Amino acid sequence: MFGLFKKKSELDKLQDKYRKLLAESHTLSQRDRRAGDEKMAEAEEVAKQIDALKAQQA
Questions:
Q1: What is the Cα–Cα distance from 20 to 39, expressed in whole angstroms?
Q2: How many domains does the chain have?
Q3: Residue burial 41-56, b: 16+ Cβ < 10 Å; e: rest
Q4: Which helix (DSSP H) or strand (DSSP E) does residue 24 occupy?
Q5: CA distance 58 to 42
Q6: Which of 4, 39, 56, 58 is buried most, with the most CB atoms less than 10 Å from its CB?
């Protein structure tokens, strides 16, 4: 209840974006393989950002 107005960290935002991109990639790959691959590439870039952020925190 008290976390209702808590702001998301940068890591949480990136993880949400990663999940959305993976879901979009999956749905697009069923219709248009090239578009699905492009979304997957975007998701990989976000994954690299997540890894870099985790490395900074550790």
A1: 10
A2: 1
A3: ebbeebeeebeeeeee
A4: helix 10-31
A5: 25
A6: 39
The answer to the question of residue 47 being in a domain is: yes
In a domain, 5, yes or no: no
Give the pLDDT of the chain (58 residues) as one tens digit per residue.
566 778 889 999 999 999 999 999 999 999 999 999 999 999 999 999 999 999 998 7
Residue 4 lies in a domain: no
Neighbours of 20 (CB within 10 A): 13
C-alpha 57/C-alpha 12 separation (Å) is 13
